[in-house]
Amino acid sequence: MTETTKTHVILLACGSFNPITKGHIQMFERARDYLHKTGRFIVIGGIVSPVHDSYGKQGLVSSRHRLIMCQLAVQNSDWIRVDPWECYQDTWQTTCSVLEHHRDLMKRVTGCILSNVNTPSMTPVIGQPQHETPQPIYQNSNVSAKPTAAKILGKVGESLSRICCVRPPVERFTFVDENANLGTVMRYEEIELRILLLCGSDLLESFCIPGLWNEADMEVIVGDFGIVVVPRDAADTDRIMNHSSILRKYKNNIMVVKDDINHPMSVVSSTKSRLALQHGDGHVVDYLSQPVIDYILKSQLYINASG
């Protein structure tokens, strides 16, 4: 496969991130490495989307703190960003609605036509409407009139860096930078761009709990978008999938990360990191990066049992 024909992927992780751990970042890295090794995908971005305060989980600290901790955790990454959209809504958003939001946002910002997992787009990426006079983005006379996949992905990356980052705690504003839209070239090379939900096997297992998830939402999440699962604690993902008719139906849309390294995925646990903080356990450094620890101590978060 050439880079043009590979599926280009943005990984989206939704969760409390209360606080975000080293394991959460490792999940992104492991998923990207695995997808690249398949030879079918190019991961061009990762998005951390913390849940709204009204989610109601006991001990959930303010999104203001969680957004800052997430930003500190990814500050050295050149491809993972934190997006505050969920936190800035009026109420809690479903995982399905978050995926749909980012899909629609990518359409507007990049000009790309995003395809569902089961219906790869055969339509070239379109820029501005035919009746408008095109104004080329690339002014260099040595550049081909038809931008390559790499050039488009460069613009997508620029757009991600604009829209997927934590803003200061100010009043609401529009996230979309209209000037970032690629709609100034008539026609690009065909590129398939998809947003995939990144999760641990514990979330996959929650799909099997009757009544916990809306079945229509599950159909969209697994059927239209697709999931990348990072197993935790030697979970049997095949057994989990066989317990749900929807997971069985869309089994081909669920990619389970497999590698030869024995990762201690328990370090993903925000609960264990909070307990370590409350008990003054020095092993907290196994769970959290130092900038996150420093922020927690400065802000006196999670120190008492109430969170």
TrEMBL record:
Query: What GO terms are given for molecular function?
Result: ATP binding; nicotinamide-nucleotide adenylyltransferase activity; nicotinate-nucleotide adenylyltransferase activity; protein ADP-ribosyltransferase-substrate adaptor activity
Tell me what this protein is called.
Nicotinamide/nicotinic acid mononucleotide adenylyltransferase 2
Q: Which residues cross the membrane?
A: none
Instruction: Say which family it is in.
Output: Belongs to the eukaryotic NMN adenylyltransferase family.
Report one GO cellular component.
Answer: axon
Q: Enumerate the spans annotated as Cytidyltransferase-like domain.
A: 12-106
Catalysed transformations (reactions): beta-nicotinamide D-ribonucleotide + ATP + H(+) = diphosphate + NAD(+); nicotinate beta-D-ribonucleotide + ATP + H(+) = deamido-NAD(+) + diphosphate
Its gene is NMNAT2
Q: Which cofactors go with this protein?
A: Mg(2+)
According to its UniProt entry, one GO biological process term is: NADP+ biosynthetic process
Q: Which InterPro entries match?
A: Cyt_trans-like (IPR004821), Euk_NMN_adenylyltrnsfrase (IPR051182), NMNAT_euk (IPR045094), Rossmann-like_a/b/a_fold (IPR014729)
Species of origin: Cavia porcellus
